[in-house]
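User: Sorry, folds how?
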Amino acid sequence: MQKKEISTSNAPAAIGPYSQAVQIGNMLYTSGQIPIDPATGAFVEGGIKEQTVRVFENLKAVLAQAGTDFSSVVKVNVFLMDLADFAVVNELYSTYFEKPYPARSCVQVSGLPKGALVEIEMVAAL
């Protein structure tokens, strides 16, 4: 199968040697998104709520570029700097997804790029 790079200016450009997303067959794999505003290239101001919304909006743009949306997402990996933020992230998460919800993992990590509080990656079936 051939890999297809998915890239949009409506989400932050990759800050390393990776793609925003890769499609292979009917599967789409997104890279982790952090709270960078693609319009300014700046890190979003605020706390976990503002950062999580920006991350989901970035992922929404990547999914749209691939011709899909959150309804096709089958797996989500959430990386948090502090698991104490889980309730806030979970509440926002529920506004982007409907039943049947994707499978999900959520872990606390010791660091994220640019000091982000949250990073999220997804797998979608197209």
Remarks:
- The chain has two helices and six strands.
- The mean pLDDT is 97.
- The two ends are 15 Å apart (CA to CA).
- The helical segments are 48-65, 86-96.
